[in-house]
Amino acid sequence: MKTGFRKERIDRGIKARTDDIFAIGSFKEISYVAMPRFLVIAFLLTFPLLGNLTGIYWQNVMMITCTIALLAISWDMLASVGLVSLGQAMFFGTGAYITGYLNHGFNWSPLLSIPTATVAGAFLCTLLLFPVLRLRGIYFGLITFAIPLLLSRIIEATKILGGTEGLSGLTPLPGLTVELYIIITATLVCVFGFRKMFDTDYGLVLRGIRDNDRAVMAGGINIQWFKTQAVFIAALPATFAGAFLTHHYQIVGMPAFALEYSILPLTSVIIGGAGSFTGAMLGAFILVPISEILRAFGTLRIVVYCLVLLIFAIGLPEGIFHYIQRKYHQFERLVPLEEIKNET
Amino acid sequence: MLETVIIFGLVNSVTLILTAIGFSLTFGLSGVANFAHGGIYILSGFLAWVLLNSLGLPFALAAVLTVILVGVLGGVIYRVVIMPVRGIVLSEVVATFAVGIGILEFFRWRGFVTYDFKIPAIIKGSVSIAGVYVDYQRLIIIAIGLVLAVVLWYFTHHTRIGLALRGMAQDEYTALSVGIESDWAATLSMALGAALAAIAALVILPLGIISINMGYDVLLLALAVTIVGGLESTNGLILGCFILGFARIITGTYFGPEWMEVIYLAAIVLVLAIKPSGLCGKSKELEERV
After folding, report:
1. Portion of chain A with pLDDT greater than 70, in percent
2. Measured between alpha carbons, how far is A270 from A306 in angstroms, rounded to an integer?
3. Does A135 touch chain B (CB under 8 A)?
4. Is a pLDDT exceeding 50 seen at residue B286?
5. pTM for the complete prediction?
6. From start to end of A99-174, where are the E strands?
7. For B178, what's the count of Cα atoms within 13 Å in the CB-facing half-sphere?
């Protein structure tokens, strides 16, 4: 009775060896574990030095890519406690406006205004989202979608913070290479730091809240307080990105709350794959350069994002990163169905 | 002054009901938050414009065709886009969000942004009520809004299909076991929501020009009223519309028009801080949201 085959997925030998046995045997095994990380870090750290090779345009693209990567990482962090954000522009814009106001109004140097804006912005956003943290799933998304749009309306209506014209003439940062190093370091620290954090007990609680918040509550843990902390931590990279890019452009205005800063990170995560931070970063590094190439097409660009988003959301919901990771660690082989029947 | 507030507050509230009812109905019946609502609304406007101006159809025929075509499109969106990811909330939101923004930005790219794009009013002219001039179109909005609310209430409470849809919304497994097909019901609810958005567009858009940004505003308005009134509750929707509609006109009249948009944020934040399930939210919704 031969009916056919099915696919079976098993770990590669080298994966099994490097996973469990602590003492790593050979150079091959060490490189199997470390090489992917090493390649990413090496590429990012040498990129700013290749200014002559890449040209200033692509250096600027790298800047935006890292910004979007930071926003996407922030999104992923929120999603890992079960909060789906549709308005990353809120964090971005808050960071941008605080640093703009401090620099424009009080002449604070960027050295002081960016860190202040990062922390104060994250605090402000947490405060703003605090009453909504009780909401789950879609409802939280609805609110976060509305907030950045409404914040920009308020600025337009009340004419505070420069109104529709924004605040211009901010202090520039010292040179593109330095800027690139700062933002690349920030991105790497966030990705690897957050990944590390999710391996600790603290991260376990956060993931528990996403998977089953009732069980975490039953365990005697105040999930409201943990969610608040998670929002604060998640807001930090995003507000930093906003504050940093403000000084890069030397202007802050209502576009800081633009829909683009909400859609791009979301699309990045969908492309790269949620839940691992690396996926979010990978998504940004695929999406933003492509979107720069498409810039000549005007708003058709956004239509293309939407198509990409649809294709990935429906066709490959796990994202590219998880797909690659699976191929790296495991291989597939055909198993006759008969054999399995005999086993059971 | 007071007459203006009352009359335009009423017009505004009914406009809000018309705008939000499609979104609220789809959500209430199938649990799909249709973020493409704004896109569908603007799409209906342009579709009607094309039917009227490029094909030269009479208004009544164009209107009926628009509503039917957009309704079918809503069903197709459900079948093609939402059904494969049904149940994964994030993917549902992302997919409809992508469809909505895709539609809006597609029209922007095609250059549908000038002042030429208008839908004619059904009856031109205006009438004076208690010293306030109101054009007929606004009166028609009130009439259609009220008729639609009654028809929908009758449909969801006293027809077999309507009851089946509500059964689906209340308990999917029980509904399945008595023979109501889940995907069919959700397709229908999506189609209905889209058709309602088309009706809203046909009645409201003649008041001004068709602008792309209005698509985003429509979605925001629908979100605001459903959050204030309580999702899944029709009474809540109507209450939310009247509160926000009058609040908008009152702030516009006494504080200045730039504050009209700010009132929504205030309302959303207040409601969420005090009663997160919305003004008419029931305990069931509270369980899901909190």
Report:
1. 95
2. 11
3. yes
4. no
5. 0.82
6. 167-168
7. 9
Which of B37, B90, B244, B258 best tests the A interface by mutation, with the highest count of A CBs <10 A? B90
DSSP tally for chain A: helices H, then strands E: 15, 4
**Residue B263 C-alpha, separation from nearest chain A C-alpha, in angstroms:** 10
Cβ within 8 Å, pair B102-A156: no
Residue A203: pLDDT over 80:
yes
> Could you give the ipTM of this predicted complex?
0.74
Query: Residue B238's closest CA among B249, B247, B229, B227?
Result: B229
Q: Does the beta-carbon distance from A84 to B90 stay under 8 Å?
A: yes
| A153/B98 Cβ within 8 A | no
Identity (one letter) of the amino acid at A195?
Answer: R
The label of the residue with tokens 């604070």 reads A108
Mean pLDDT of the region B127-144: 79
Q: How far apart are CA B91 and CA B249, in angstroms?
A: 37
Question: What confidence tens digit (pLDDT) does each residue in B149-179 have?
Answer: 888 888 888 888 888 888 887 777 888 888 8
Angle at A80 between CA A201 and CA A15, to 5 degrees: 70
- Compute the distance between CA of residue B20 and CA of residue B24 in angstroms, rounded to an integer: 6
Distance CA B99, CA B116 (A): 25
Is residue A164 less than 8 Å (CB to CB) from chain B?
no
Write the CB contacts of B70 (distance below 8 Å, at least 6 apart in sequence): B40, B43, B44, B47, B194, B195, B197, B198
Partner-chain contact A150 B288, CB within 8 Å: no
* Shortest CA gap A142–chain B (Å): 7
The bridge status of strand A330-336 relative to strand A5-11 is antiparallel
Q: Provide the pLDDT for residue A339.
A: 56
Please give the Cα distance from A43 to A25 (Å, whole number). 27
> What's the pLDDT tens digit per position in B239-264?
888 888 888 888 888 877 777 777 77
CB-based contact A134 B290, cutoff 8 Å: yes
Judge whether A291 and B105 are in contact, CB under 8 Å.
no
Report the gap between the CA of B63 and the closest CA in chain A (Å).
Answer: 27
Q: How confident is the model at residue B283 (pLDDT cuts 50, 70, 90)?
A: very low
Identify the CA nearest to A245 among candidates A333, A179, A328: A179
Nearest CA in chain A to B228: A143
Contact A132 B289 (CB under 8 A): no
C-alpha distance from B266 to closest chain A C-alpha (Å): 10
Per-residue DSSP letters for A163-200? TTT-EE-PPPPS-HHHHHHHHHHHHHHHHHHHHHHTTS
Would you give the distance in Å from CA B80 to the centre of its chain? 22
Give A334's strand partners.
A7
Does residue A146 contact residue B220 with C-beta atoms inside 8 Å?
yes
Q: Residue A146: CA atoms inside 13 Å, Cβ hemisphere, count?
A: 30
User: Least CA distance to B220: which residue of chain A?
Assistant: A146
CB A312 within 8 A of CB A271: yes
Q: What are the structure tokens assigned to B249, written together?
A: 């006109």
Question: In the predicted model, what is the mean pLDDT of residues A205-209?
Answer: 90
